Fold each of these.
Amino acid sequence: MSAPALIVQELDVRHGAVQAVRGLSLEVDRGEIVGLIGPNGAGKSSTLHAIMGLVRPAGGDVWLDGESVVGRKPEDVARRGIALVPEGRRILAELTVEENLRLGLAARRRRQDLDADLERVSELFPIIRESRKRPAGALSGGQQQQLAIGRALVSDPDVLLLDEPSLGLAPQMVDLVFEALQEIAVRGIAVLLVEQRAQRTVALAARSYVLSNGRLRLTLGPEAADDTETLVNAYFA
Amino acid sequence: MSSATLATVLGADWQTLADAFGLGGIYALMAVGIGLVFGVLRLVNFAYGQLIMAGGYALAFAYERGWPVWTGILLCFAVVLLLTLAMDRVVFRPLREQSPAVMLVATFAVAFLLQSIAQLWFSSQGKIAASLSSLNQPWTISGVDIRKISIVATAVAIGCLLVLVTVLGRTSIGLHMRAAALDFQTARLLGVRANRVIGSAVLISGLLAATVAVIMTVQTPLVTPDFALRDTILVLAGVVLGGMNRLVPATLGGFAIGFASGFLGGALPTDKSQYLPSFLFAAVIVVLLIRPGGLFTRSGQRAVERV
């Protein structure tokens, strides 16, 4: 059996005097959705930023397919196969939908199967094909989120990180995004999902790590989704 | 409308209009050179004019030795590109993480340093670069005399802009540059290589500076240490006027101020034209009071933080 695609080991992240993440370890296997939940300021986004190389961890290690990526620049981490769907989507509003999608190719390692991959993204999110030539800023929030995920997928990543993809979306769009994540995992991509919607995340993920004050408090399986008491206690532990 | 009446309505002859287009084109190229680097680095390169000056001295050097025209132009491109890359390596790159204000002041320092070096090496007397002076001869087009350089400058500017639009719009490095100019961090997260994008922008701005140097020495063959300095200040005003943080508005702003400068310079009587820059800058101030985001930006786009 091969090692998990993504391993985070004893990660410490500091922002000046504030320690955002303390000794966090987690792993995500291929084809698996893993949740990372917890209250605001728990260190969820800091964890993702440290994995991507946006902030240099104060300690610990991040392994992608058995290779450490700590200390690499964000563009190099992306080019090695970790794609981030950032908080707030960060769609380039003035570029067209197609140009946003093509930007995702910057990190792509394989030149072959490009058309097939673009086709699969269009199947997953038909809105991308339907509005190719429109400025991305003209899309609704939910459509932009689909574009942000599509953009990450065309880079053909091994690991997909998502930072609160459901934030500010209408309920049916949230359903669409969560369903899409399942299909993405089925393709063999390791998915690490940072979310505020704790219950839905726990129900979807193979396991969910509960973070508070930068520390791992608890690991929950999908069966805990209906156990409100455990969830609430985990948040306020 | 016949050609004669259009010229009469505008109160200028065709030569003045052609000059204005030529100067507008040159300023547009300078605006692109400054705007591209600003887009990816948030750096206002005040030393841009000194790159053009260096190119002018290279052309003068070749002319003094009687070298063929093409050798002079090649030397000009080589010198300007080397200086551009050196500037990026020695000054911009170490300061990349600093605030825009620090970088602006650094480019001021570079500008005055290069100017002083030129003064020490070549004296403030100036050198002549006249190998292309035959372009100052007129072409007669349907009875109207127009100097060749006005047409060449306009054509070169249009050509360069078309190439740039194609590179930025149709190639992946162009897409990466546009993305980096809009949101550098997101572009990097998507795998866009920061150094490659910045390097390309700096390189293109250097190519444009060399091109401008060649055209400018035709019109002003006397190369002095403050060569292109006044033009750079006008172009910077034009770039701010158009809208600093967008390439197309910045280019239009550069063209507008070049056109206005050339047109008024030709139309005004000689004893009034010394006040021309004052008029232009007064107009820039008025425009910015009315449209702080720039003349050619859509409303709702926010102006960049000014330094």
Amino acid sequence: MTTVLAVLEQRDGALRKISHEVVTGARRLADALGGSAMVEAVVCASGPVGNSAQAGSFGADKIVTLTNAGFAKYAPEGYAQAIAERAQRGEGGYRALVFAASATGKDLAPRVAAKLGVGVAADITDIAVDGGAIVVTRPVYAGKALLKARVAAQPAVLSLRPNVFTPVERPKAGAAETVAVTVPPGRVTVREVKAAPAGTLDVAEAQIIISGGRGLKEPANFKVIEELAKAFGGRAAVGASRAVVDAGWRAHSDQVGQTGKTVSPTLYIAVGISGAIQHLAGMRTSKVIVAINKDKDAPIFKVADYGVVGDLFEIVPRLTEEIRKLHG
Amino acid sequence: MKIAVCIKRVPDSETRVKIGADGKSLDEAGVKFALNPYDEFAVEEGLRRKEKAGAGEVAVICLGPAAAQETIRTALAMGADRGVLLQADKVPMDGFETAKLLAAELKEGDWDLILFGKMAIDDYNHQVGPLVAELLGLPCVTAVAHLEIDGTKGVAEREVEGGIEVVEFPLPAVLTADKGLNEPRYPALKGIMAAKKKPLEVKPVQPGAGAIEVLVLMLPPERKEGKIVGEGAGAVVELVRLLREEAKVL
């Protein structure tokens, strides 16, 4: 039986939402492989994962929780060993392993891949099967080009770019199974996860991003961006251009662009950002782009669906007001 | 402290991508190449750790074409002691092939730290560091944005969605550097002069074909021409209407 292994993520015993995208991608691959290929979802945890059954509704035939007392927080070495061992079960093992290209997935996928003697087809935005071979599309040069590649590795280890594989309901049996695994104590241990201040969303995962650039004039003025983000009721993250990150106005974790994060939100609002090529590369796959800039010739307007020319300190607060009315 | 830093030569981030005649690679005509920005953080961290320890060595290792000697010289100008170029015409798309070559070079080195950038800004593979760590059986922390080392114990911080992971690890280890780890120094004129005299060993290598075969490299679809909704705060009501009714994103 051809099986695709979808590697899910949990935090504090609850399935992370990105896992829905992973199951959706794995299901798409299994269906393309044909021959009624199965999707087995797997999650490492210290005990039951409350909402793991959700994986069934997105197309997992089976949901396996690999438990170990040391798996409450991310345990890089233990997780990698448990998943690599799982992937080698049965005759010939699994056809493919699908991870999220999240912070954890980017760390975990190569560790598992190396144990299986293969590399990772990383950060992919599309999967297809052509004549039995897995063909992936992945952005390179920060999205300035797309690469199509045939993955001949057995198994194929893939990671999916967040926010691209929109979860699709595909109810399957989702039969639950718990397997206690034994792994040696890890040398690398996560001591704690310091949570970001409540209400801050990560730009890599947000559906709406409001980014600010040099046009804000000084760091304190990011308040107008934060107010607008807040008006979206917790769905929006604040991003930043390289110029303001390099100037120390914002944390590097907020940076969008070739040396920051490459993002694909539903709505991207660029405020006071002229649109350097390395910035455009990082956000051009956003579904809808709005630009607010005082310079009508700024390159950002070339990629924006909607532009407003003028003083951002007048335009943004007004926009905040209008958005608040909508969400009132 | 004995430190190896693995670096890559990549097209500068301001590069406008043109597709080569084979339809599978970048047209390199007129492209300016640079030290991968994330590797700059790795080189800087290596130099600081050696300076702090008061003794040791920082060696830079690069898989790439002959022209990557220039990239190695940049790291030497920053202060690294010596360079090794694993010379191959092409860097394979399959990160595992790159990792095997680097691991073979690093195996006998008895390194305290092996540093990488968290990813290269050309292929976006973000995997070679942890692959090498697995091949060498060394502990590994990726995307390190803050680092403390005390003797043979290290504490690293890495960004995860909605938080910061605090990770403990023993040395020797493989670490990959994220932006924020440090502020890389600019090579001073003295450093650039000195770099010319530092040892740079060139070793020809034959990368395997790997299991990831490039079929086509293409430009992304152009975004369709947008529109200027208007000028000033007066345009906001119309903007919101368009976002609701036309784009349907609100």
